[in-house]
Amino acid sequence: MTSNINNDPTARMKSYIERIAAGPKMSKNLTEQEAEDALSLILNQSVSETRAAVFLIAARMKLETLEENIGYWRALHATCENVSVPLPRLLQIADPFDGVTRWPYFGFYAIPLIAALGLPVYGHSSAPAAPKFGVTFEELLIGHYQIPASPVEAARDRRLAALEQFQFSYLSLRHTHPLLDRMASLRSEIVKRTTLSTLEKLLIPLKAEENFLASTYFHKGYEVPMTAIAALAGFDTTVIGNGMEGTSLYGVHKPARLFRAVGQNPAEEILFDAGKTFAPETAKKIASACAEIKNLPATAPAIVQFGEEALESGSGPAAPLIACQAAALSVLFNQFDDYQKAYDACMDRLKDGGVFESLQGYLQFLKNE
Amino acid sequence: MTSNINNDPTARMKSYIERIAAGPKMSKNLTEQEAEDALSLILNQSVSETRAAVFLIAARMKLETLEENIGYWRALHATCENVSVPLPRLLQIADPFDGVTRWPYFGFYAIPLIAALGLPVYGHSSAPAAPKFGVTFEELLIGHYQIPASPVEAARDRRLAALEQFQFSYLSLRHTHPLLDRMASLRSEIVKRTTLSTLEKLLIPLKAEENFLASTYFHKGYEVPMTAIAALAGFDTTVIGNGMEGTSLYGVHKPARLFRAVGQNPAEEILFDAGKTFAPETAKKIASACAEIKNLPATAPAIVQFGEEALESGSGPAAPLIACQAAALSVLFNQFDDYQKAYDACMDRLKDGGVFESLQGYLQFLKNE
């Protein structure tokens, strides 16, 4: 116990803000333990909304140390769902929780395809959140497919049961982290992204025997704390990259710098460029699909229309992008060892309509109870 | 009109926060006009408390440009009382509005003494405010002397009438700037000082023919925007210094660096050291008074006890400090041309008890209506 860790939450938060909000030259760092305490106070609503917002924006403006990021993550981890699932391997796809607004993104439809390739997978997201309020996995499920959202516990249990049955699912912060989910309106008041936007993509609400994470970084440099924390979280293999509009659709709009970390080892940097990784004919299809979708609106109806078209018959502009994303992740997480072979397998699965049926079955399953 | 100045206050504030809160390397500056708009939105409660707090802490952590400070000051100035008073000259003493907590400070009692030397003067302060919540002029008046605080308009009118009658008075933000006064609890939630702490000391609620300001800076560097803004405000002569516990009792606990600006001219730096400025015997008295009061509590009862003792008979540890402060300000604002002569005049006034009677008369006057 140090003199700063006293029993008065208000005094503790005051002391943390005094230190981190002193400006570009005079701000002091918190210890890992202090950072964990600070975010715990915020999550548990032991301090006012205003003071929580002041802390969060100051923590970001100061720039977090690795110790602080680990402390903040520990506070989130301690209050996150922690469910063991009887699967040998499980991939979490964690795209930015504020969704996409510039280009339609079909990651929602890549998820059942990845499962069809033999790798169990779930998407972790939330209702559209600040600052972008774009389309998320959850927005497609609730807003478009009208999956029942409440009662929350029953909905969560159904999503988990569906994962075992279909080998893929989607989870929301509502299910995995109610305390963080409750902070959505406060985070909207803060305007800017805070450390929460980085760390919510590193939660591990489900635990299989082997755990994989595919996620994203906003700015170069964040891959360092992100891969360190993902290892701490228990992910056996983590890939962090800067894909299209910040998603895990890597390397289609420009070459992506991926950071792939296995266990506690330092991350290996991989330059992933769809234009060079796949055979020329495939690369051309991906490039022209990419050019085509840039003219489509990033709305749920457009995403659903082209996503379903791809899953039904392997046709339309979404198909090469969905196959590219699924193929890349399958290789990065050792399900395939060759990108083009993985891509071909993806196109076969899309063309036979089996993935579409699987998604329909999943949606029916969620609606039936 | 630029594209950022649209009619939606929420969108405007969002855009301002996006720019200033991007962190140590990527934050952008606001124009003077944008800064004025931002603080106007906050003062008028056109944005949420949380968003106001986020803006204010981000503005400080980023460090304000001169343009931003001027813009913020313009927003405050536009919503400040603006009363002409029929006096040839008028000095405002603006010590930090969060008061003193370390050492008893007797500036409250220096004010009637300065008036007795022939320079009309008022103290501008507020109820004890964040972050220190120390003793202020207003705390002594309301908390200790039980001067009626409401109805606010009647109280303000009485304070103004008393200025003409007694040649000194005290005003609160409650009277001079209700919109800023209303932000006290929000400012307390922010924990750290914001630009408001600097700029409230540069308001000019009363205007005489010639206007003087004695105020203070927290950190070296602030004297530049402060003297620039004071000139803009219409102060003919401004002195900014770092006195005891950040007050305008300059040069007693250590040599003070004063910045004295006349009109629009650049400030002249003056090293003011009571130990060298006054005759040795006087310097010794000031030094031993300073040593003595450091052992006294910085509470209203202690301040009143020793302050009144000084005014009644020129005795006790507060007397040399009150005389030193009044003498320094009298010379800095050209009422006297010699520090020692001014000090001797001060001690004469204290010893004859006239200043005490004047303060009693002032307090009676405020109570009688």
Task: Write up this protein.
The structure is a homodimer of 369-residue chains. With 369 residues, chain A is of the alpha/beta class. Chain A has helices at residues 9-20, 32-43, 49-62, 66-78, 107-116, 137-144, 152-166, 173-176, 178-181, 184-190, 195-199, 223-233, 274-277, 280-293, 300-313, 318-332, 339-351, 354-367, and strands at residues 83-84, 89-94, 121-125, 168-172, 206-207, 210-216, 237-241, 256-262, 268-272. The first copy, chain A, has 2 domains: 9-78, Transferase, Pyrimidine Nucleoside Phosphorylase, Chain A, domain 3 (Up-down Bundle); 82-369, Nucleoside phosphorylase/phosphoribosyltransferase catalytic domain (Pyrimidine Nucleoside Phosphorylase, Chain A, domain 2, 3-Layer(aba) Sandwich). In chain A, 51% of the residues lie in helices and 12% in strands. In chain A, the strands form 2 sheets. A 7-stranded mixed β-sheet of chain A has the order 4-3-2-6-7-8-9. A two-stranded parallel sheet of chain A has the order 1-5. In chain A, a hairpin with a 5-residue loop joins strand 8 (256-262) and strand 9. Chains A, B: GO terms for molecular function: anthranilate phosphoribosyltransferase activity. Chains A, B: Keywords: Glycosyltransferase, Transferase. Chains A, B: Pfam families: Glycos_trans_3N (PF02885). Chains A, B: This is Glycosyl transferase family 3 N-terminal domain-containing protein.
The biggest sheet of chain A amounts to: 7 strands, mixed
The CATH homologous superfamily name of the largest domain in chain A equals Nucleoside phosphorylase/phosphoribosyltransferase catalytic domain
Radius of gyration of chain A: 20 Å
Overall number of domains of chain A: 2
Distance between the termini of chain A: 49 Å
Average pLDDT number of chain A: 95
Helix percentage range of chain A: 40-55%
Protein name (chains A, B): Glycosyl transferase family 3 N-terminal domain-containing protein
Pfam families (chains A, B): Glycos_trans_3N
InterPro entries (chains A, B): Anthranilate_Pribosyl_Tfrase (IPR005940), Glycosyl_Trfase_fam3_N_dom (IPR017459), Glycosyl_Trfase_fam3_N_dom_sf (IPR036320), Nuc_phospho_transferase (IPR035902)
GO biological process, one term (chains A, B): L-tryptophan biosynthetic process
